[in-house]
Amino acid sequence: MSQLSNRPLSDTLELTSLGDVGERRVVIVGHKSPDGDCIGSALGLRSYLLARGADEVSILVVGRMPDNLRWLPGAETVHQLSAQSDLEPIRQILAQARLLLLVDFNHLGRIGNPLEGLVAEIVGKPEVRSVMIDHHPEPDMGLVNEMYSDTSACATGFLIAELLGGGASRELELHGGADMATCLLAATYTDTGLLRHGQITPTLFRTIAHLLEVGARHEEIVLRIFKSDKLSRQRLLGYIINERTTYDLDLGVAVFTLRQEDFDRFGIEPGDTEGLVNVPLDVAGIRAVAFLREQRDPDEPVKISLRSQGNLPVNEVASAIFGGGGHLNAAGAEYQGTLSDALALVWEGLRELVHRYPDC
């Protein structure tokens, strides 16, 4: 489903109306626990806006970005917040914003604390132009001035590239450049697993070709994001496959878990679990996968990631049982309780889902 503003994105991101030189300050907010699509999209927009004359572009996220994204152009400028962060500088950044971009999420609850409340204070102010750019279902339509939401887009990075570079538009050439193109291509690759899942369309390949023409560094993205595993992560993957995964081949479901003790055993850091949920889908006959993990802080909820193939809607399990959400083939949720209880609910939900959609 598409909810696109009537204004071209390039017009919405026009900066001269924000004020005189020195006043054109932009804030980009991503979702908590930022992934490749979130960071790549935000950095791509940062590069574009600076080329168009922004005086300052600040990127704010809650949580630490994965290590394999830290080489992306501009990554060193991202503010990564936690419960221990000094919020006064962040308040000042938000207070000076004239353009607020909410990127790769569909409602304020996805921002996470302590940033969510600060953003809520400014998002409706008349002096701040607010824009949402996203591809997740059910966006909060009344939240922003301009909405660019398309659930058929495989990634927010792809959506941005298509909106700025599709058709006769030359925005990517005029104001983008190789750094922006590299960030948006990285965003697209990470959210599709190197084009292995999601909405893979002819338009996607045309857009990728355009990004490559502008200078996107395909080989570097593949090498530094997809072929940069630490040895500890490879060992973690082997442990998960051998010790933590239950396969029900009759049902076509695989479920695996990580517990608190695993974090210390394998030295797990933010980003180390990125993409692991997709691994069991390589097993013949597996239609759906669930990955449940405890957090280092025992007071934090259990995180649940769900993936599927074909038209099996795992987002129904995420929303109906846990109040989560996401896409048909990729969804997530949190559970404030024990891992054992969450595991039982996931198995119950997946069994019911597979029986309800036997031919998907």
TrEMBL record:
Residues 258-347 form the DHHA1 domain. SUPFAM superfamilies: DHH phosphoesterases (SSF64182). Gene3D superfamilies: 3.10.310.30, inorganic pyrophosphatase (n-terminal core). It comes from Porphyromonas uenonis 60-3. Residues 25-188 form the DDH domain. It comes from the Bacteria. The lineage of its organism: Bacteria, Pseudomonadati, Bacteroidota, Bacteroidia, Bacteroidales. One of its GO terms (molecular function) is nucleic acid binding. This is DHHA1 domain protein. Pfam families: DHH, DHHA1.
